[in-house]
Specification:
Blueprint: E1 3-7, E2 11-15, E3 20-24, H1 26-36, E4 40-44, E5 46-47, H2 51-62, E6 71-72, E7 79-85, E8 88-95, H3 106-112, E9 117-121, H4 130-134, E10 140-143, H5 151-156, E11 162-166, H6 172-183, E12 189-193, E13 199-202, E14 207-210, H7 223-236, H8 241-255
Parallel strand pairs: 1-4, 1-9, 2-7, 5-6, 9-10, 10-11, 11-12
Antiparallel strand pairs: 2-3, 7-8, 12-13, 13-14
Helix pairs in contact: 1-7, 7-8
């Protein structure tokens, strides 16, 4: 069974128009979706001593995610205000809470290296530690969100095997050029998700395109993270790039058919 470690940011997504609270955050979501696909996963990050911190840990445990290395720090858990308008999520204010103080310890690096792959992202405060994971021959994936040239990405990408970023506005020519710029920084595989236009990947030799799996949309929260989980699960199983993209799209379709990330 594959085993993926997800390290970095978490937050409670609070929907102001419905007063609903959902645990989330890029690595958190990926960890849950890996479990949904039948793999094992761990989450490493920091939560506060408040009710939202307990909500996060209880929810992850209920999904079978290993939270043994989550740091519980005095203070508040990260919180994002969200509104849902016509099925689309619209983000408001964000309070990072105790995640601002998160840093990986030596024992955490040892734990990460007991997995088949480590995945982090732009706001995870883990980018400066990823070289330690790669030095021990553990593959690394990094999600750049919509900002593949931010400082955290520039630190992470030279030590990354698979890089993801989102871009649904560029023309295909612009996107290909952006992918090539990201690939030049070190990743052997770069994947751009394009919303309703599917995804585009580059493996250092050629580009691959894949569409979407159509479904009735309830909420787009978690779509990109679902794609990443599906892609990485299949990649660890030795599937080719297009098959990984197809499995990512199929997993995203499951998530966006209901409200909340998971």
């Amino acid at each position: 069974m594959i085993k993926i470690a997800c390290v970095g940011d978490n937050c409670v997504d609070f929907y102001d128009n419905t007063n609903e609270a959902f645990p989330g955050g890029n690595p958190v979501n990926v960890a849950v979706y890996v479990r949904r696909l039948g793999g094992e996963s761990s989450y490493l990050g920091a939560v506060g001593t408040d009710d939202h911190g307990r909500l996060m840990l209880d929810a992850l445990r209920s999904k079978g995610v290993d939270v043994s290395h989550v740091q519980v720090l005095e203070g508040t858990t990260a919180l994002t205000h969200v509104n849902r308008i016509d099925g689309e999520r619209v983000f408001g204010d964000y309070d990072e809470g105790v995640m601002a103080d998160f840093s990986l310890r030596d024992e955490d690096i040892d734990f990460l290296c007991q997995h088949d792959l480590v995945v982090s992202g732009l706001w995870g405060h883990a980018e400066s530690h990823l070289h330690k994971v790669r030095a021990r021959n553990i593959p690394v994936a990094f999600d750049c969100a919509e900002r593949p040239f931010d400082e955290a990405a520039l630190i992470a990408l030279p030590h990354t095997n698979i890089a993801f970023f989102a871009d649904d506005t560029s023309t295909e020519e612009e996107l290909r050029n952006k992918i090539l710029r990201v690939a030049a920084m070190g990743p052997e595989l770069v994947v751009a998700t394009r919303g309703t236009k599917g995804s585009l990947a580059y493996d250092g030799r050629e580009f691959y395109a894949y569409g979407i799996v159509k479904c009735e949309v309830g909420d787009t929260m978690g779509a990109g993270d679902s794609f990443i989980a599906g892609f990485l699960t299949s990649w660890l199983q030795g599937k080719d790039t297009v098959s990984c993209m197809a499995d990512g799209a199929a997993n995203a379709a499951v998530t966006i058919s209901y409200c909340g990330a998971w």
